[in-house]
Amino acid sequence: MSGALSEAGPIYLRWLSERGEPELSVGTTWGVPWKKGVLAREEVPGLRLGWLGGGAGCGGASGSAGPIASSGPAVFAGSGGSTEPSMFAKSAGGGCAGSVDNAGSATVGTTGSTVSLSASDGTPGAALVREHAARAELIPDVIADVVPGEVLVPMQSWPTAYWPDGSVKWTAHAAVFGRGESGTETPATAAGSLPSGGAAERLDPGGNERAFAAGGALSVEEQDDVIRVDTGVITCLIGARGQKVIRSIMRGGAEVCSGGTLVCLREAESAASGVRVRREEPFAGRIHRAKVEQAGPVRAVVKLEGRHQAASGGSREWLPFTLRLYFYAGLESIRFVYTFHYDGNPHQDFIKGLGISFALPMHGPLYNRHVRFAGERGLFSESPKTLHTRRTKGRYRELFAGQTAGRKVAFDPDQDAYFLGLLDDSATWDAFKLVQDSSEHYRIAKRTGAGCSWVKAADGRRAGGLGYAGSEGGGLAVGLKDFWQKHPSGLEVTGMAGEEAKLTVWFWSPDAEAMDLRHYDTKTHVESSYEGAEELRATPYGIANTSELTVWCAGETPAAGLLARMAREAGAPSRLVCEPEYTYAAGAFGIWSLPDRSTPAKAYLEDRLDGIIAFYRREIEQRNWYGFWDYGDCMHSYDPVRHVWNYDLGGCAWQNTELAPNMWLWLTFLRTGREDVFRMAEAMTRHTSEVDVYHFGEYAGLGSRHNVVHWGCGCKEARIAMAGLHRYYYYLTADERIGDMMDEVKNADYSTVTLDPMRAYFPKDEHPAHIRVGPDWAAFSSNWMTRWERYEDEAYRDKIITGIGCLKAANFRLISGPTYGYDPRTGVLTGMGDDNWGRHLAICMGGPQVWFELAGLLEDPEWEEMLAEFGLFYNLPPEEKLARTDGAIGGGRLRFEHPVLSVAIAAYGAYYHNDAATAALCWSILLDNDFGRTDLSRAEVPALHAEEVLEVDWMNTNEASQWSLNTIISLELIDQFLPEQSGMSG
Predict the structure, then answer these.
(1) Rounded distance, CA 807 to CA 407, Å?
(2) Using one digit for the tens of pLDDT, what is the confidence trace for 687-719?
(3) Neighbours of 822 (CB within 10 A)
(4) What's the pTM?
(5) CB–CB of 335/326 below 8 Å?
(6) Confidence band for 20, pLDDT divided at 50, 70 and 90
(7) CB half-sphere exposure, 396, CA atoms < 13 A
(8) Beta-strand pair 234-239/244-251
(9) CA-CA distance, 881 to 895, in Å (whole number)?
(10) What is the C-alpha to C-alpha distance for residues 134 and 688, in angstroms, rounded to an integer?
(11) Are 963 and 954 in contact (CB under 8 A)?
């Protein structure tokens, strides 16, 4: 493998955000896929990152050689090897008929047309190159034209997945970009121009890298009970045990934070003699384990695990948590990713408040202390001792304006004695808070002290989610991601008049009603409401929720402009991404197509795909699918009589990954590179991987089927929790929390012994459990595939091979079953008949997408042929099914339902066998479907619910998701069979 990259061109990266390059200094981590055989693991440390002050673009549609406009640089990889695809090139080393040649040109699409690469559109970004290339030919020949001064950015790289031949499949990279050494802008510098590329390094004439500028190195030191992280700008002491997750943060010799603690309020309610009493009990996070996961040189990650302990000294500990802290060299910021798990009794343990509180030393007079809250567009800027009095005029008004802007104020004791007396007489405001009580309202209030009323200061719609508190010695600015989307949230500052203030970020604000995690009823409603099982099993025990925040450690009060940029960065963190053409050519994530409008028929389908995404974006906003436990999910199906989604109808309420909407959104992002789609997919991934899944307890490794309450359905199944739904986000971002979740489900198949997924239909017998080849075994195989590619753990590969071997031995291979006896210890599937259950669930929950990728990894021709055989068989007339199986399969009712769900695997069968008739049937199914016939933007009509809405009264997310997924795949596999007349309808 050595030297496999020697002839490869640079991979151009672009910024995901429409803002383009970061507005302030940021550390970012991103993933890059690699075509099979291109990158050896020993070459990963030699990858280098060049900063493009201009930018990089890529060719346009097929046949076009000109650059396209982009909000950031393009990302492309070069590789050696043939441009001729194998039968399964689409899943193992390139798009369906595409690859990237060693000149840096990509061949994409089924026609093999060339897309030119360029870096000429002037957009800032980066380019990934190999070490020897950065030292020699690639710098002068490629990067020097677009990188003034031949700038290299320090980068940390590591592999995150491997191909079966040992080459690297995915890498993760971390680097620092932005303005100035630390990104700090203060009122004194706000008007000036800050240097860019402050975190970069330049090559000297001999090609040697210079070290980080003074103060820019990152170091991590593990001591007895603390972990010390020094970014070169701040030094943070992290507690390795005890209640303080942060012991201290120093900047420039001054302490800006003297402690950080996870806080929780438990509410208990009692009613006796007609008197209802609510009791609040405080808890604080207690660290049990600390681990340094990465220690630089660019990025450091510290993982803390623990539980929340009664603050009053009681013995109870509950709500297990994981907290990761991320540091980047040369930065003043820290990223926090906090996950808590619920392990209480929902009828007794109500969470009233949940957050993290930072202690801030206060220095100097009260009028030089400052509080800031970001509104929707503006900034709440006040001091505990405002200079506003009825005598504030002239010079004092100018001082007041400066104070409000954050500038330090000084008075002459003699000259200003009268005004200082007025200040002594004026109110001192000790506490401030912003509460986002819904997605449509927030309130800012302040008070002088405990026992006094809160005074309303402002009302607004959607706050920016950033707060700052500090004094003459500096302070902290804290931004919470998805602040209004995951209401009720809050920011609170107390103790501004004392020696130590507290800045608390509330993930769940105590000003709202307590969390109510009880089920919506005391019994199930299977027949009337499509609930999944007669057993209730509606428990939140074991579910989780994750929140993300960024903390900036400021040496003085930041200017309004910088705070606004911090709020935008916290709300939508800067990310580098590869262009769709590169990701496609690298063979990432199986079979999918790039957008293609080269014919009227293809343009028609692209419009339909775009229209479905646009519809759901509008629905999220119109229906307010927001909230701490709901954000990221969407509803299942619609009630046209009440003009509302079925929010109260059992299994027709929240979607909970039913029919793989995660995959639909991620494939849409992969093919388009759209930021808005990325944010939708990211939110869904955060939600479904945490809220809809059990992380411990009786149902560990399983998730809950769709329901009114996310954890409410009695069906607990592996498909909801499977790694195949969430690995997209992991590989694109290297998110450690999703990595944890994927590790959790590696042995989810063992849960079938205690909770048989087919228990209602197959009684206990000699088999430890009964599972369907899909969605159950398909979900397990996605977990094993992910474990195998991440850790090269061949035990999980062997479990996949064992299962496939059992399916090969069945009378009609994949067509048989689909229910089998199963033993999780051996992975053996034991046949129980050739036609014992319906097949549609095997193909609509992500099974084909997982199996396509497996085929590319295993390179097993028989497995590929089995997939194709199943795809051709599914939609055959019953009499032909019976004829092909000697009467064994085809006579039963409801065995091969819902043809629209079958299109992806049927299209694969048509592609594999070049079967025009099956391909024509696939297109007929898609084009005759409501989603194929309808322009949703024109189909929406006004209706009156509680408020006026626009509705499409036949809408359901199951088909929206599956139609989109199957169309994307069909455009890759059988586009040559697409009838042109489809472009003329609708």
Answers:
(1) 73
(2) 999 999 999 999 999 999 999 999 999 999 999
(3) 29
(4) 0.91
(5) yes
(6) confident
(7) 19
(8) antiparallel
(9) 11
(10) 41
(11) no
Work out the angle between the directed axes of helices 861-874 and 847-858 (0-180°, nearest 10).
150
Q: What is the pLDDT of residue 825?
A: 97
Rounded Cα–Cα distance for residues 108 and 114 (Å): 7
- Burial class from Cβ neighbours inside 10 Å (0-12, 13-18, 19+) for residue 268 reads middle
Q: Give the mean model confidence (pLDDT) for residues 563-568.
A: 98
Burial 402-430 (b: 16+ CB within 10 A, else e): ebbebbebebeeeebeebbeebeebeebb
Q: What is the pLDDT of residues 761-816, one digit of tens each?
A: 999 999 999 999 999 999 999 999 999 999 999 999 999 999 999 999 999 999 99
**Cβ neighbours for 421, distance < 8 A, ≥ 6 positions apart:** none
> Hey, what are 493's tokens?
């500052």
Structure tokens at 655: 């979607």
568 and 482 Cβ atoms separated by less than 8 Å: no
Tell me how far apart the alpha carbons of residues 27 and 10 are, in angstroms, rounded to a whole number.
22
Q: For helices 600-622 and 957-973, give the axis angle rounded to 10 degrees.
A: 150
Residue 90 CB partners (closer than 8 Å, separation 6+): 96, 97, 587, 590, 591, 852, 856, 972, 973
d(CA 300, CA 325): 8
Cβ count within 10 A of residue 60: 14
CA neighbor of 133 nearest in space, from 12, 36, 5, 31: 5
Judge whether 267 and 280 are in contact, CB under 8 Å. Answer: yes
Please return the burial class of 940, using the count of CB atoms within 10 Å of its CB with bins 0-12, 13-18 and 19+.
middle
Q: Give the residue carrying structure tokens 């009467």.
A: 887
The residue type found at 899 is P
CB 716 within 8 A of CB 702: yes
Nearest alpha-carbon partner for 233 in 519, 518, 27: 27
| Alpha helices, DSSP H, located in 813-929 | 840-843, 847-858, 861-874, 878-884, 903-913, 916-928
- Determine contact, residues 319/344, Cβ cutoff 8 Å: yes
Q: What is the CA radius of gyration of the chain?
A: 29
Helix or strand run (H / E) with residue 809: helix 794-809
The total of other beta-carbon atoms located within 10 Å of residue 123's CB is 24
Residues 6+ apart with CB under 8 A from 846: 660, 663, 719, 722, 724, 725, 775, 778, 779, 782
Owner of token pair 């800045």: 503
- The pLDDT tens digits for 193-252 are 222 333 333 333 333 333 333 335 899 999 989 999 999 999 999 999 999 999 999 999
Name residue 877's amino acid: P
Q: Are 827 and 802 in contact (CB under 8 A)?
A: yes
For residue 69, how many other CB atoms are within 10 A of its CB? 8
CB 843 within 8 A of CB 775: no
Q: What is the C-alpha to C-alpha distance for residues 862 and 87, in angstroms, rounded to an integer?
A: 12
Beta carbons of 544 and 338 less than 8 angstroms apart: no
**pLDDT at site 127:** 75
For residues 942 and 949, is the Cβ–Cβ distance under 8 A? yes
Bridge partner residues of 113 (DSSP): 108
Give CA–CA dist 735/720, Å, rounded. Answer: 19
808-815 — which CB contacts under 8 Å span 24+ positions?
A: 808/862, 808/863, 808/866, 810/834, 811/885, 811/888, 812/885, 812/888, 812/889, 813/866, 813/869, 813/870, 814/773, 814/866, 814/867, 814/869, 814/870, 815/869, 815/870, 815/873, 815/885, 815/889
Q: Assign 3-class secondary structure to 965-980.
A: HHHHHHHHHCHHHCCH
Question: Strand (E) positions, 560-600?
Answer: 576-578
